[in-house]
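Are you able to produce any protein sequence you like plus the matching backbone structure tokens because I've never seen that pairing?
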Amino acid sequence: MSEVAIPALRSLQAEAISLAQSLSDAEWNLPSDCAGWTVRDVYAHMSGVYHGLVDPAFMRTGDDPNDMESGMEVGVEERRSWPIADVIAEYEEFATKATDNFATMQSGDLATMEIPMGNLGTHPLHILANAFVFDAYCHLRNDLIAPFGPLDHPAPAESAENLGPILEWMLAGLPQMCAEAFAFMTAPVVLQLDGPGGGSFIIGDIANGSPTATIVSNPDAFVRWGTQRRPWRDEGVTIVGDEAYGARVVDALNII
């Protein structure tokens, strides 16, 4: 189960609230590192998704209900006319309520009940908490806070407490999110993540033989290049073994 994701998520939410309460009007309207979104848009996205999870009447979808990312833009656009105070209040209320709900999904039959999540794949309910640790960490550390985002503020810790749940979600989603892109794979590779929360993982089908390459990174960098926020060649990634094949795998990897 993913019990460790609950305290990590509550901690990241507290950091998000602290950051929000410190911002000036000008900072709210700075462009984030999430293309097309300002700082306030990133918060509107986060608060809107939490609200929709707690009350499905507020869940927004795009033209394609299976494309989770297109639905996010609908909720952001809806909140662009809101006062900043209302965006913060929505985040504070519904982040807490959603996480309380996630905590109830960590045991019993509910934990293993699988739900379809569009192009994110099909997952057991218990791992939803991990998905939102991933979401909060990505937005805070990479889209909002310097050096990648525009805000001068301490970033969330590069810790096992944060990165362990994040990697669990990313590696659970990877085979489903990248299945089409990985159709060329004829052999597995090793993903070696050295650092807090890391470990050694297999990408691909071991029935196809031994791994032909090892992709080496640290976990925090993997969050960026694994979501294609930053080119992997700029993130200190090294490939041991069949470098051309390993690079092709890394180029195709994109976790939503």
The mean pLDDT is 94. The chain has two domains: 5-164, 178-252. Residues 6 and 129 are 6 Å apart (CA to CA).
